[in-house]
Design goal:
heterodimer, A: alpha+beta, five-stranded mixed beta barrel, flat, B: mainly alpha, de novo design (two linked rop proteins), 80% helix
C-alpha cells in the first residue's frame, strides 16, 4: 500500500470527518426545525412557564450597548475580526478575535412585554455591517478605534495594511425578534414586591438540553433557513464523506 | 472491487443511520406535540380554576347592591357548580362557555348600579376576572394551535405511519360558542 500523505490527502481526511460532523449536525438542525414547527406562538400576556415561542419587537429595558463597529445603540451584538492569511499555495480568512455581548431586553407584542436575557442563546441574525481593509484602504475611524482598544493591529510589515475583514451583527431596538426559549422566574423581581403577572417572568436559557434560539426574522423565515440548513448539512455532509472516502481509497490504490 | 465495497457499505451505513435518526425524530416529535396538548390544557385549567375561585368573592361583593337581580347571580352560581363538576375537556369547555356568558351578563347588569360601579372591591374583582378572561382566550387559542399541529402531523406522511403504530387518534379543539365571541361593552363611570 503506497500512501503519500500530502496536504491534499490531509485535507481529504479532515473533509471525511467534517462530512460526518455536518451529517449529524444536520439532524440537530432538523430537531430544532421540528421544535419551532411544533411549538405554537404564545402571546406575551398569557405566557406559561416552560418552553415557549414568542415573537415581537425588541425594546430596551435598563440599558443599551454600543455596537463595536457602527456604534449603533443595540441590545445584543457579536463581531468577528478576520485576517486573510496565505500558507503555501492556499490562503484563507483566519478569525483573530470574536465576541458577543447582550443585555436583558424587552420583547413587546400586541398584548404586553416580557423580559428576555439573551445570555447563552443561540443567536441567528444576519450581518448588519461588514468592511474589508487592505493595502491603500484603511479601516474606518470607528473600526480603527475599536481594534486599537482590543490591541489588534491592522498594519503589517513596514506599516502596510493587512487584508482584514470586520463583521458586525446586532439586535437593535424595534427589530422584530423570534424567540424559542424557556419562560421562568424573573430573577430581577423580588417575590415580596413582585407585581403579579408577566413582570414575574423572564425568557432565558432553560435546563440542559433545552433549546434557546433568538433570531431577528419571522418564524417562516426561520423554518425556511432551518430546512435549507438541514438539507445542506445532511446531504452535503454525506456526499462530502463519501467523496473523501473515494479519494482516500483511490490514494490507497483500492479503486 | 474492495474500494467500491467499502464505499457502498459506508453510503449504506450513512443512509441507515440517517433513516434511523429521522424515524426517532418523528417518534419524539409526535410525543412532543401530544404533550404540548396536555401542557396547554393544564395551562388553561389553572386559569379556569383561578376564575372559578374569584366568583364567590364577586357574588359576595355585588349581592348587596343587586338584590333584585337574583336571576343573574343564580346563573353565575350555577355556571360555577357546572364547572366544578366537569371532568373532561369537552365538559369543561362547555362549562367555560356558560360561565363566560354568565359573567358577561353580570358585568353588563352592574352598569345599572352606580354605587356598585364606584365600589373599589368590585372594580378590583372585575379587573382581575377580565384579565383572567383575556388570558383564557389566549391560552385557548394556544391550545387549539397545539391540537391543530398534532392533528395535521398524525395525518401527514411519513408521520402517519409512526402515529398509527403508536395508536394516536385526533384530538378535539376547545370550541367556543358564537355568543362567547361577541364582546359585551362594559362602560366604567
Amino acid at each position: 500500500m503506497d500512501l503519500r500523505f500530502d496536504d491534499l490527502l490531509g485535507g481529504t481526511v479532515v473533509g471525511f470527518f467534517a462530512g460526518i460532523a455536518f451529517f449529524f449536525n444536520g439532524f440537530r438542525t432538523l430537531k430544532r426545525k421540528h421544535l419551532i414547527e411544533n411549538t405554537p406562538t404564545s402571546k406575551v400576556r398569557s405566557l406559561a412557564m416552560g418552553q415557549v415561542e414568542v415573537s415581537g419587537a425588541a425594546a430596551p429595558w435598563k440599558e443599551t450597548l454600543a455596537a463595536p463597529f457602527t456604534e449603533h445603540a443595540c441590545l445584543y451584538y457579536s463581531y468577528t475580526i478576520e485576517e486573510y492569511r496565505r500558507s503555501g499555495k492556499s490562503s484563507r480568512w483566519v478569525t483573530v478575535d470574536k465576541e458577543n455581548r447582550g443585555v436583558p431586553f424587552l420583547l413587546r407584542d400586541e398584548t404586553g412585554a416580557v423580559l428576555v436575557d439573551p445570555a447563552w442563546a443561540d443567536v441567528d441574525i444576519p450581518e448588519d455591517y461588514q468592511e474589508v481593509s487592505g493595502m491603500g484602504n484603511d479601516p474606518s475611524t470607528k473600526v480603527q478605534g475599536f481594534v486599537r482598544q482590543k490591541g489588534i493591529s491592522f498594519e503589517g510589515f513596514l506599516g502596510v495594511n493587512k487584508k482584514m475583514r470586520f463583521t458586525e451583527y446586532h439586535i437593535a431596538p424595534q427589530d422584530r425578534v423570534f424567540i424559542l426559549g424557556t419562560a421562568a422566574d424573573n430573577p430581577y423581581v423580588k417575590e415580596a414586591t413582585a407585581i403579579e403577572g408577566i413582570a414575574d417572568v423572564m425568557i432565558q436559557k432553560g435546563p440542559k438540553g433545552s433549546c434557546y434560539y433568538i433570531a431577528d426574522k419571522s418564524e417562516k423565515e426561520c423554518l425556511r433557513s432551518h430546512a435549507w440548513g438541514t438539507a445542506a448539512q445532511v446531504y452535503g455532509g454525506a456526499a462530502l464523506t463519501v467523496a473523501c472516502l473515494v479519494y482516500i481509497l483511490a490514494q490507497m490504490h483500492l479503486f | 472491487m474492495v474500494g467500491i465495497a467499502i464505499v457502498l457499505v459506508a453510503a449504506a451505513g450513512l443512509l441507515f443511520i440517517g433513516l434511523l435518526i429521522y424515524g426517532i425524530g418523528i417518534y419524539n416529535g409526535l410525543i412532543q406535540v401530544k404533550n404540548n396538548i396536555k401542557k396547554s390544557w393544564a395551562n388553561i385549567d389553572v386559569l379556569l380554576k383561578q376564575r372559578t375561585d374569584e366568583l364567590p368573592k364577586l357574588i359576595e361583593s355585588v349581592k348587596g347592591y343587586m338584590a333584585h337581580e337574583r336571576g343573574v347571580l343564580e346563573k353565575v352560581t350555577e355556571a360555577r357548580t357546572q364547572f366544578l363538576s366537569a371532568t373532561t375537556v369537552a365538559e369543561k369547555a362547555q362549562a367555560d362557555n356558560v360561565m363566560t356568558q354568565a359573567i358577561k351578563s353580570l358585568f353588563a347588569v352592574a352598569e345599572n348600579y352606580p354605587n356598585l360601579k364606584a365600589n373599589e372591591n368590585f372594580l378590583q374583582l372585575q379587573g382581575r376576572i377580565s384579565g383572567i378572561e383575556n388570558e383564557i382566550a389566549d391560552r385557548r387559542e394556544f391550545y387549539n394551535d397545539s391540537v391543530n399541529t398534532y392533528n395535521i402531523r398524525i395525518a401527514s406522511i411519513p408521520d402517519l405511519f409512526v402515529a398509527r403504530m403508536m395508536g394516536l387518534q385526533p384530538e378535539e379543539m376547545f370550541k367556543t360558542t358564537e355568543a362567547d365571541r361577541q364582546d359585551v361593552q362594559v362602560k366604567f363611570a
